[in-house]
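Q: For a teaching handout, I want to show students what a protein-ligand complex looks like in token form. Below are the inputs, and the small molecule is pyridoxal-5'-phosphate. Please produce the holo structure.
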Amino acid sequence: MSIANNLNQIRKQLPENVTLVAVSKTKPVSDLMQAYEAGQRIFGENKIQEMTEKWEQMPKDIQWHMIGHVQSNKVKYMAPYVALIHGVDSWKLLVEINKQAAKNNRVISCLLQMHIATEETKFGLYEEELHEILHHPELEKLTNVCIQGLMGMATFTEEEAKLKSEFRYLNELFIKYKTIQKSNLDFQTLSMGMSGDYQIAISCGSNMVRIGSSIFGFRS
Ligand SMILES: *Cc1c(COP(=O)(O)O)cnc(C)c1O
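A: Here is the structure, written as tokens, with pyridoxal-5'-phosphate included.
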């Protein structure tokens, strides 16, 4: 199957309200261009340097999403162009993104990454920390960021019941915290679901899926 075929197969299954992020990490620009030529305009990468190299080489109507863990000292490299940062998991990082966005005269959209898996290794916030960030007395001073919603990664398992309970939990948090009114909060995106679990994620309320290997093939 070609990349364009894979992409079209997946698109056919996605409800209209669900945005597809094509996760192209480790893949060469030639592969990304095949997806681009098939109409894909949103790409997800997990390393800032790799994403920046691809951004430099590729058409400028692409929206680049940072889906990986972000180190504060590297935010400056993507601040000029990044469209959405999925993996924001601390107040400190949010402050740094705001600072770099201001330097570039931009407002950068962010998602807060929640810890929903049972695995220790997955990054993310617990509800208490989410609550703290969204009620931080200085949040509205961060006028160069816009918090657009939540992101999460489920446990790596084929156990459907477990995936469902983790995705449902994230959806509950999304609905609960959506009601907070602040100038730089605009909860509209719930980013959950990858190649192995996106259908379940969508059934649990996801409206943004991050799909890599089902489009581009396995990564070595
Ligand atoms: C790699 C990655 C994906 C895509 O994974 P696939 O299983 O290849 O679809 C999605 N989200 C994040 C955060 C990733 O790092």
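A: Two things your students might notice: DSSP finds nine helices and eight strands in the chain. The mean pLDDT is 97.
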